[in-house]
Design goal:
This protein has about 120 residues and is mainly alpha-helical. It has a single domain, classed as Arc Repressor Mutant, subunit A (Orthogonal Bundle). About 60% of the residues lie in helices and about 10% in strands. Strand 1 and strand 2 form a beta hairpin. Helix 1 crosses helix 3, helix 1 packs across helix 4 and helix 2 packs across helix 3. It is elongated, with a radius of gyration of 24 Å.
Length: about 120
């Protein structure tokens, strides 16, 4: 005799099989929430880290530093700095580095000394 199907949104899915436990069942919605919550926390921390680094790069761009100088100061590769600058221009919808400098200085960045 077959069991009736669970209501929509409450399907159980097998997540592990072992000789001792047999087929472990976890509610699909709960496992998805657990995975989504974990993914969201990781994504949030990653985004915050990237945003902080991009702000740091923008600060140095606003001071008039070249990519090579920024790379040396931060201990990163020239290509990484190039990618950060490109991401900054895209996110701020700016056409070039000069516009980024103007916007950053208007926002209060880039006023520290170039030491």
């Amino acid at each position: 005799m077959r069991r009736p199907a669970p209501p929509a949104g409450r399907r159980a899915v097998p997540v592990a099989r072992s000789p001792v436990l047999g087929a472990s069942q976890v509610r699909f919605g709960r496992s998805l929430a657990l995975l989504t919550g974990y993914h969201s926390a990781v994504a949030r921390r990653t985004a915050e880290g990237k945003a902080a680094r991009e702000r740091e790069v923008l600060e140095l761009v606003a001071q008039g530093r070249a990519n090579a100088a920024i790379a040396a100061r931060l201990g990163l590769s020239h290509k990484t700095i190039h990618n950060h600058v490109s991401n900054i221009l895209t996110k701020l919808q700016l056409a070039d580095r000069a516009q980024a400098i103007v916007q950053a200085r208007d926002a209060g960045l880039g006023h520290q000394s170039r030491t």
